[in-house]
Amino acid sequence: MLKKCLFPVAGYGTRFLPATKAMPKEMLPVVNKPLVQYGVEEALAAGLHEICFVTGRGKRAIHDHFDISYELEHQIAGSDKESYLVGIRDIIQQGRFASTRQLEVKGLGHAILTGELLVGNEPFGVILADDLCLNDGPGVMSQLMEVYRRTGSTVVAIEEVPEQEVSKFGIVVGEEEEPGLYRVTDMVEKPQAGQAPSNLAIIGRYILSPSIFELLRHTPPGKNGEIQLTDALLMLARTSRVLAYKFEGRRFDCGSVGGFVEATNFVYQHVYQRGCDA
Ligand code: UTP
User: Which atom belonging to ligand 1 lies closest to the Cα atom of 107?
Assistant: First the structure.
């Protein structure tokens, strides 16, 4: 079964400037946890314990977050404040962490290809931490794992989006094989509103076969001059089965200020306060 989850975290986060000038976007806190921690928790809950980061310059805080801070630990040992560290300590114990650097920010496809060094020749999960996904039941990666267990196919998470938003996403067209599960027949990266073949948008959760690496190696730069994962996935869909799964739960686009504020309010009201009352 799968063990590895790749986190491409090398992007500049320009939509969040100036906050992201010296701090990684993935370290922005939604209430009291950085975005990337939510993603890592989701991966661990799905049984993916080998966490692989594709990082870049200025991303050191991510490495430090998943490491022991001896001075801090020593300072608060035995005090009430120690309880605040329990969650992250558990994560550090459960996971194994590795990273490599994307030398140039040339798109999500390029970031994933950079991760080949860590992933090797086995299927793997991918989480884009700026898509924060929350669900009362199993997380989105666990849901994708369930589909993968049944089918053994590459699978991407999708959601229906309003027509005016299609231009922000990779859009899939597919034949519905069972309720909420589509076999992908076509994909378009960020189509203009009114020109999209459907409103089924790919969100930042994937289970990929290692054959994607060879396809990415031969994928020319696409939209915005970047190597697009969507282009390689479409090539894969032409030769093998690629599934798109309408996940259960809520997704917040925390790469945008509006989505981030929405997520913060939601987590504060429905997760954080509930935890404090418990
Ligand atoms: P985004 O496009 O949402 O992130 O990529 P970004 O480029 O950092 O954001 P803006 O548009 O400038 O505000 C989705 C994920 O893919 C990673 C990003 O770090 C983010 O987690 N990514 C993107 C890479 O790792 N490398 C890339 O070349 C591009």
Answer: 28
What is the per-residue pLDDT across 90-141, written as a single tens digit (0 to 9) for each?
999 999 999 999 999 999 999 999 999 999 999 999 999 999 999 999 999 9
Specify the pTM: 0.95
The per-residue pLDDT for range 226-263, each reduced to its tens digit, is 999 999 999 999 999 999 999 999 999 999 999 999 99
Burial class (CB in 10 A: 0-12, 13-18, 19+), 246: middle
Is cis: bond before 18, omega within 30 of 0?
yes
Nearest ligand 1 atom to alpha carbon 110? 28
**Beta carbons of 184 and 240 less than 8 angstroms apart:** no
What is 4-277's CATH topology? Spore Coat Polysaccharide Biosynthesis Protein SpsA; Chain A (3.90.550)
Which tokens hold the place of 164?
């005016």
Mutation test of ligand 1: which of 23, 128, 156, 169 has the most ligand atoms closer than 8 Å to its C-beta?
128
